[in-house]
Amino acid sequence: MRANELESQGVSMTAWAFASLGVRSEPLMDALAEAAIKLHDEFKPQNVANTTWAFATLSIFNEPLVSALAADARRMVQEFDGQEIANTVWAMAQLLVWHGSLFEALAGEAISKVAECSPQSRSNTMWAFAKISVSVKPLLTAMASAAVSTGLSQYSRQDISSTLWSCAALAMPDTPLVNAIASFARCHLVEFAGSELANVVWAFATLAVHDSSLLESIAIRAALSLAEFEWQSLANIKSVKCLDASTPLNEVYHIQRSTSVACYSGIHAQVGQENERHLNMLLLMVFGLGTVLPC
Fold first, then answer.
1. Which long-range contacts (CB under 8 A, 24 or more apart) does 21-24 make?
2. How far apart are the first and last CA of the chain?
């Protein structure tokens, strides 16, 4: 069956399926976009959310399609459930598309439906508004309160780090949430990926939250599990460690030294021997090392 022969449900589900599988066929997606534009008046909230999500996941921006779907979403906003709201705002933010009235309407609906949102939906909704640098305080407060009240054990580690990153990116320090994440992270460090821990550390530094014991534990975790960390994550962790002014000077030196060695080793392994000269220059600039550390 050809794309132009599909009904509205078939168009959205086909797009969703290929995006879920990570298959990026531009001729197919162009045909599906054309079909979706013709049928968009028949779309239901799930069709709008799935289609928008699919194109964003495959990093395909089709302006006529996005405009049509945004108009549909604005018209049906009160019919969207929490998952559909999250998928739609995430997709728009991923494509760096700003529709002021749509985002305002979706934020209002998300607040009223926060209790029915899954942890991932809450996290993705917060991330979307942070991605486009739009702070809707009532929405973020509601999402943060829900996370604290339901408990973080229901959140994936990625959702936790993304939620905290969103608060920091929008300069919104929610003390109960930050404290809850700090307590949770301290007991579950081994379950966080390198990039997730880097986001947590960056968020704490951005929000001027100094939890020396947790930051030191993260530094040790980084040193012991270098293979899991991208070099940028290691650099972020090391540079943020220097911001903790409450740590005594002798401890700062020890932490800087140990994390610098860890960062050097991790970056060196990922960059490779052939780029060692450029790596040394990078380390001197980023870490401020007086001498190049041995690998």
1. 22/58, 24/58, 24/59, 24/60
2. 58
* pLDDT single digits (tens) 58-94: 999 999 999 999 999 999 999 999 999 999 999 999 9
- Residue 120: pLDDT band (50, 70, 90) is very high
Contacts 24+ apart (CB under 8 A), 94-100: 94/56, 94/57, 94/59, 94/128, 94/131, 95/55, 95/56, 95/59, 95/61, 95/66, 96/131, 96/132, 97/61, 97/66, 97/70, 98/132, 98/134, 99/70, 99/74
Instruction: Please say whether the beta carbons of 55 and 96 come within 8 A.
Output: no
Hey, what are 233's tokens? 């994550």
150-208 pLDDT, tens digit each: 899 999 999 999 999 999 999 888 789 999 999 999 899 888 887 788 788 888 888 88
Q: What is the mean pLDDT of residues 24-44?
A: 93
The letter for the amino acid at 206 is: T
Distances (CA, A) of 16 to 21, 22, 30: 9, 10, 14
Length of the chain equals 295
Q: How far apart are CA 124 and CA 143, in angstroms?
A: 10
Share of the chain above pLDDT 90, in %: 50
> What is the rounded distance in angstroms from the CA atom of residue 268 to the CA atom of residue 280?
9
- Which of these, 133, 137, 71, 79, lies nearest to 107 by C-alpha position? 137
CA distance 85 to 105: 10
